Amino acid sequence: MDELDEILERIPGMEEEEIRRIQNNVNEYYKNHLTPTMVVAELEKHQKQSTTIRLNAEAGSTRMLLSRLGVPMGPGITSIDLSQAVDHKTDST
């Protein structure tokens, strides 16, 4: 947090161009890593590594993830059992 505090203290003296650069970087980071679509895509990458995902998310993100994984949706879902996913393969040998 020291680095963040240092940056926040520098803001009043920053040039407009530097502020715009920082804003653009923050927006790019959000778009590439934090949008519901990107979070779901990242979870999909790790689908085969775990059978349960604990997700603290908005309902829209949860519905998107369940839909893309083919997991049945229902009210009050607190965890996702990936063994229910349509494309989740398990080795039965």
Q: Which sequence of SSEs, written as H and E, runs from N to C?
A: HHHEHE
- In the predicted model, the low-confidence regions spanning at least 5 consecutive residues are 86-93
Work out the number of β strands. 2
How is the main sheet built? Answer: 2 strands, antiparallel
Helix amount = 40-55%
Kindly report the spatial arrangement of strands forming the biggest sheet.
1-2
What is the strand and helix layout of this fold?
Blueprint: H1 2-10, H2 16-34, H3 36-45, E1 52-53, H4 59-69, E2 80-81
Antiparallel strand pairs: 1-2
What does this structure look like?
With 93 residues, this protein is mostly helical. It has one domain (2-84). It has helices at 2-10, 16-34, 36-45, 59-69; strands at 52-53, 80-81. The N and C termini lie far apart (49 Å).
Compact summary:
This protein has helices at residues 2-10, 16-34, 36-45, 59-69, and strands at residues 52-53, 80-81. It has 93 residues and is mainly alpha-helical. The chain has one domain.
Comma- or semicolon-separated keywords:
single chain; 93 residues; mainly alpha; 4 helices; 2 strands; 53% helix; disordered C terminus
